[in-house]
Amino acid sequence: MPYDPQKHHRRSIRLKGYNYTEAGAYFVTICTKAWQCLFGNVVNGEMQLNSLGYIAFHCWQTIPYHFPYIELDIFVVMPNHIHGILIITDNPVEARHCLALNQHSEGNPEQFGKPVRGSISTVIGSYKSVVSKRINIILQTKGQSIWQRNFYEHIGREQKALDNIQEYIVNNPQRWADDPENPQANSDIQDYLFDIPF
Question: Within a domain: residue 10?
């Protein structure tokens, strides 16, 4: 079937018109493709990372090296997703990217599929790419993305909301048995992602 832009398009879940290079705290959720549990298991309320989980964990920790304007806050690698808070501290300076990405001039609004240097989308895209590449080497697969095509984010504008998100992330492993992202749970994943108390 030939490409038809009227039928074959993806809807952006980013906030329309928001400048995702703006300083602030961003709560990010990234899910594995088909919610596969690739990164380990939760045992007695604690996440036990496997070798793929350590790759996801280590690459997350190195984000500030590649993007010096990003600070890490609390994060957790779960069996099939990652929750974390990324803080943009100021206007981005020239970033040392993990992988080459298409860069656009400053002042261009972020568009779906066209990341802007310094945006959360660019940081997450780079992170997802490098994790996929390293995991492909281990699994001896080539060019396979381990991630869903998008990610979820919430912009933390107030301290109380940020406190709630931090608590949610810290407690995520203890709630794994009831987590809708757990393949053994029987809830709707999409609804769950929007029910987090901000």
Answer: no
Element of type H or E holding 57: helix 51-61
Query: Would the pTM of this model clear 0.70, i.e. be above it?
Result: yes
User: For residue 184, is it left (φ>0), alpha (ψ between -120 and 50) or beta?
Assistant: alpha
The answer to whether residue 184 sits within a structural domain is no
Does the pLDDT value for residue 107 go beyond 70?
no
Number of domains in the chain: 1
Q: Is the residue at 6 inside a domain?
A: no
pLDDT per residue over 47-57, tens digit each?
999 999 999 99
Range of the domain at 86: 24-179
Q: Name the helix (H) or strand (E) containing 135.
A: helix 120-139
Categorize the per-residue pLDDT at 103 as very low, low, confident or very high, splitting at 50, 70 and 90.
Answer: very low
For residue 160, what pLDDT is reported?
85
CATH number (domain holding residue 46)? 3.30.70.1290
Secondary structure (3-state) at 71 = strand
Backbone angles phi, psi at 82, to 5 degrees: -130, 135
Cβ neighbours around 5 below 10 Å, total: 6
Considering the domain boundaries, does residue 114 fall inside one? yes
CA distance 187 to 180: 5
Nearest residue to 122 (alpha-carbon basis) of 39, 19, 11: 19
